[in-house]
Design goal:
Structural class: alpha+beta
Helix content: 55-70%
Shape: rod-shaped
Strand order of the largest sheet: 1-2-4-3
Length: 179
């Protein structure tokens, strides 16, 4: 019996699984080369080598190399090591949604095509989620503005009532005879 390609990862691949790996760098939603390599079940080195062989397919708006200061902020998520100790010796590449889509043509495997479908769905789901949050934020802002206006109106009414009560006490004449 042939094993299903999507379930061959130790952790099942779902849209949520991929969404958790999407990071925002330079205001762009990206996936790092190491995360993509894990999803495609290849080494990062192989992925980058395939990209470099087809570099004309990856303009700067499809992928970029992460700067050192950006890598430092991601250090808890990306394990970097000294050259003498093995591991990553270069700064990671970040692939924007378009770059991920292009990877399926560079990595000619069934796994790459299937993972790209999952990844593109994750990007779309994340985009929809962000749009929903933007709509909710606008509604909350509108409610806060209305609440502030109503608070101001209530304060004005309270001041007016206080003035009326003071005037009423002042205008009231005393009962009885004046001596």
């Amino acid at each position: 019996m042939k094993e299903n390609k999507e379930t061959s990862l130790i952790v099942p691949v779902t849209t949520g699984f991929i969404e958790r790996r999407i990071k925002i760098i330079r205001g762009q939603k990206v996936l790092l080369d190491s995360d993509l390599a894990e999803l495609y079940q290849i080494k990062s080195k192989v992925l980058i080598q395939a990209v470099k062989r087809n570099i004309d397919r990856f303009p700067k708006d499809f992928m970029f190399n992460i700067a050192l200061n950006e890598a430092v902020s991601l250090r808890s998520q990306i394990v970097t090591s000294n050259i003498g100790r093995g591991g990553r010796r270069y700064l990671p590449y970040a692939f924007i949604e378009l770059g991920v889509a292009m990877l399926s043509s560079v990595l000619n495997s069934e796994r790459a095509v299937q993972m790209n479908i999952f990844i593109i769905r994750a990007f779309v789901a994340l985009r929809q989620l962000l749009e929903t949050h933007a709509e909710l934020a606008a509604k909350i802002e509108k409610l806060e503005r209305e609440q502030k206006e109503q608070g101001n109106d209530i304060a004005d009414i309270s001041i007016a009532i206080t003035k009326l009560l003071k005037e009423k006490d002042r205008l009231r004449s005393a009962i009885g005879f004046e001596v």
